[in-house]
Write a structure and sequence with these properties.
Structural class: mainly alpha
CATH architecture of the largest domain: Up-down Bundle
Strand order of the largest sheet: 1-2
Number of domains: 2
Number of strands: 2
Shape: elongated
Distance between the termini: 84 Å
Order of helices and strands: HHHEEHHHHHHHH
Helix content: 55-70%
């Protein structure tokens, strides 16, 4: 019986041969006992070290869950949380009917933590657009310098789909988000592209509640086309300027959509609350002043 405390590697020569790169089981070593840390955590640490050392590379396929758990000397129940975490941070990707692979594209960071923070701290639209402006204006310039033919083809396709869905705001929004992600991918900076995915996920969640009231979609798609053409023409300065213009107009449009969805009663209510707050501040100031003189 295998002693889980042993650090001795058990060399296994089995390798998968299906025409795709697979990982030999003998690259993995036994996971240490739980007293040295959670087993799932140690699975993550081991995979991280193997990637750093070059023993795991993008596109490599992991052994099956059963074989990997056996090789590591742990149960499948202990293995799964580690694999789920690696998938959530974009290190692993699953292909239906094929298996689990080391991700071979830009990291697809889980946007759930950012969405949770947005809900908890009530990110304002101004904050979101400020973040987008700082990120996306630079991405447009980088895309004009680095985008490949495939990136440009994706941008062109999304612009075409936006024109085709002008009468369907929800569908339009999907292609809008995909266009911005294509621009980010064309920047050739995987870190910025991953950040863009996270920010756009939060923006999509917020905008999908208001986009039905949009009145600027025609102007919006024309600006998207302008950005695409400038990127294709390899004009980074002009692409950045066009993206900045687009985001400024998008921010105004979003604010208009939110106001139009409030209705007159809600606007009066908010105004009343604001007035009450101002009155309370004035009263508090007078109280402090009288206390200072007493």
């Amino acid at each position: 019986m295998v002693n889980l405390a042993s650090k001795v590697s058990i060399w296994v020569s089995s390798e998968f041969k299906d025409g795709m790169t697979s990982i030999q089981l003998n690259r993995f070593r036994l996971v240490k006992p739980e007293k040295d840390g959670l087993m799932a955590e140690q699975v993550v640490i081991q995979v991280r070290e193997m990637i750093r050392e070059g023993r795991l590379r993008p596109g490599d396929r992991l052994p099956s869950e059963r074989e990997l758990a056996k090789r590591l000397g742990i149960s499948r129940a202990s293995l799964r949380p580690g694999l789920r975490f690696l998938a959530a941070i974009g290190v692993l990707t699953s292909r239906h009917g094929s298996g689990t692979y080391i991700a071979d594209g830009p990291p697809a960071l889980d946007s759930e933590p950012l969405r949770m923070l947005a809900a908890l701290h009530r990110f304002t639209p101004d904050e979101m657009f400020e973040a987008r402006r700082l990120l996306e204006v630079g991405l447009a310039g980088l895309a004009a310098q680095h985008a490949t033919d495939d990136h440009l083809a994706t941008m062109a396709e999304e612009v075409t789909e936006m024109y085709a869905s002008l009468d369907d705001p929800q569908q339009y929004l999907i292609h809008d988000i995909r266009f911005h992600r294509a621009v980010a991918a064309g920047s050739a900076n995987q870190i910025l592209a991953a950040l863009m995915d996270m920010v756009s996920a939060v923006m999509y969640e917020r905008r999908s509640a208001t986009v039905e009231r949009a009145t600027d979609l025609k102007q919006s798609v024309e600006l998207h086309r302008k950005i695409y053409r400038l990127i294709r023409a390899r004009k980074p300065d002009e692409a950045r300027a066009a993206m900045s213009e687009h985001l400024t107009l998008a921010q105004r449009a979003f604010a208009s959509e939110e106001v139009s969805g409030m209705g007159p009663f809600k606007r009066r209510e908010d105004s009343s609350v604001g007035g009450q707050a101002s009155t309370s501040k004035r009263v508090a100031a007078r109280v402090r002043k009288s206390q200072a003189h007493s």
